[in-house]
Amino acid sequence: MNQLFFGDNLDVLRESIKDENIDLIYLDPPFNSKANYNILFKTPNGHGSDAQITAFEDTWHWGEQAEREFDEILHQEKTQVAEMIRAFRQFLGVNDVMAYLTMMTNRLIELHRVLKPTGSLYLHCDPTASHYLKIILDTILGHVNFRNEIIWAYRGGGSSKKDFGKRHDVIFRYSKSDKYIFYPDDVRIPYQAEGINRTDDAMWGKHKGTDKVYKPHPLGKIPEDWWPINILNANDPERLGYPTQKPLALLERIIKSSSKEGDWVLDPFCGCGTAIAAAQKYNRHWIGIDITHLAISLIEKRLKDSFIDVEYEVHGTPKDIDGARDLAKRDKYQFQWWACSLVNAQPYMGKKKGSDTGIDGLIFFQDDQSIAKKIIVSVKGGERIGVSMIRDLGHVIEREKAVIGLFITLYEPTRPMKEEAANAGFYTSPISGMNFPKIQILSIENLMNGSEYPRYPDLSRGGLTFKKAKREIKKGKNEAWF
Fold first, then answer.
1. Which residues pair with 170 in a beta bridge?
2. Which of 21, 45, 141, 211 has its CA 20 to 30 A from that of 134?
């Protein structure tokens, strides 16, 4: 069964993945010490684009966790890795780059452990730290197992007057041993795709010193280590709004060339799930890991949009009310993001500093020919809830010109709260004339067991709140339409 894990990938690797169990690893670890990564959700016409959330706030800073992981590396059994990381620290000092390299080293040790002897690892990075990561990979996987430095080249907007334009990423390809599998014929590309416009008799010739005639392969050429694959532009139908989202064509090439049907593919920084989607499309088993509930929720939605009968298990997310309470105590933002996913709402503004807006999530819907209408979601994970919170939600609904408010609570609402919600009245849908409570109180427990759900009309069936992934055609020996 395919697996999706919420949590620190170091913990998941150590606790849940056996030795030499994975055929292919792809990882694209985030590193940008001066930027946050925002999810930009779909915003219907007539509404501002302020519904954003920090999905990954760069945490690769030197601190207690980095120091603890550095000490772990010094005391693990691979002495050459310990010497390497010690030299890095002496050279770089204690800073964000050193924290990043320390945490990546620890994770690459575990990824090497879980990789099969016939397996391959692809590490995707930009030139900021690629030279350091190459040394780490050489030390852990062995320089003799280095296979390619792939240059992913792409076009982009804008230019610099002080530098040549930065228009490529680096992907390091390593094998676990010299017995690795590789299927280059499965990723042949048309000659014309890389500017070779002649495939006629003029290209034919003889192998040097022989009479053997060679000619262009009818299915095209095997790609070299320079891949001109365009990035996803803002209007690309494949784009889901994730700023670091990679094109599906890039991951398809990796997965088809270095795995076969039924193999296990692992992405320990799975983000919006492009590697997982490619693995599912080509009949591979997969494991995805991410450290935010938001990413897990988006991946689940992407899979359900793209594949009708996809099957997988989710680990690390609350399965019952006790799990929900535990999450609320540990991290209120993760709890809010997860609670919003229960009602298919966009999380709102994330960890934005400043006064509380009273909004934790947004839902957009449409029930006539006018602009999309808005639902406010307020999430409460504490025990101290009362009628004043319902009144506050009513004020927020009015201020934001919304039509409905959802009050999601971890603990049982009081009778006065229910009465106050009832006093708010109804929203009447113009298309059907049906009435819907203007303030709806929903408990986490009842949302989880399916006895409660948000009530509102929606002709778009959720299409205004999230960008919808396209339906994929599953590929394989026995092709089927999905």
1. 125, 151
2. 21
Decide if 207 is inside a domain.
no
Same domain, 385 and 293: no
Label residue 189 exposed, middle or buried (CB < 10 Å: 0-12, 13-18, 19+). Answer: middle
Q: Is the pLDDT of residue 52 over 60?
A: no
The predicted structure's pLDDT at residue 59: 53
Q: Is residue 454 part of a domain?
A: no
Q: What pLDDT, on a 0 to 100 scale, did the predictor assign at position 107? A: 96
pLDDT at 279 over 70: yes
Give the whole-angstrom CA distance, residue 348 versus residue 360.
Answer: 5
User: Domain span at residue 429?
Assistant: 321-449
Domain count, the chain: 2
Q: Is 208 part of a structural domain of the chain?
A: no
Q: How far apart are CA 336 and CA 324, in angstroms?
A: 10
Going by the DSSP 8-state scheme, the letter that residue 23 receives in this structure is E
Who has greater pLDDT, 147 or 457? Answer: 147
Which CATH number fits the domain that encloses residue 270?
Answer: 3.40.50.150
Q: Are residues 174 and 41 in the same domain?
A: yes
Task: Read off the pLDDT of each residue in 211-229 and give the average, rounded to a whole number.
Answer: 82
pLDDT digits (tens, 9 = 90+) for 333-368: 889 989 998 998 888 865 444 456 889 999 998 888
Alpha helices in 152-292 (DSSP H): 248-258, 274-281
pLDDT of residue 410: 96
Stretch (H or E) spanning 426? strand 426-428
Strand partners, 297: none
Split at pLDDT 50, 70, 90, the class of 393 is very high
The answer to whether residue 369 is domain-embedded is: yes
Question: Closest by alpha carbon to 154, among 136, 169, 143?
Answer: 169
CB-count exposure of residue 194 (10 Å: 0-12, 13-18, 19+): middle
* Torsional sign, CA 301, 306, 309, 313: negative
Check if the beta carbon of residue 171 is closer than 8 Å to that of residue 121: no
If you write DSSP's letter for every residue of 57-90 in order, what string do you get?
-----SSHHHHHHHHHHHTSS-HHHHHHHHHHHH
| CA–CA distance, 462 with 450 (Å, rounded to integer) | 18
- Tell me: do 327 and 361 sit in the same domain: yes
Asked if residue 461 lies in contact with residue 426, where contact means CB atoms within 8 angstroms, the answer is no
Is the C-alpha dihedral spanning 178, 180, 186, 188 positive or negative? negative
- Is the pLDDT reported for residue 34 higher than 50? no
Token digits of residue 374: 């808005």
- Provide mean pLDDT across the span 391-402: 95
Rounded to whole angstroms, the Cα distance separating 276 from 182 reads 20
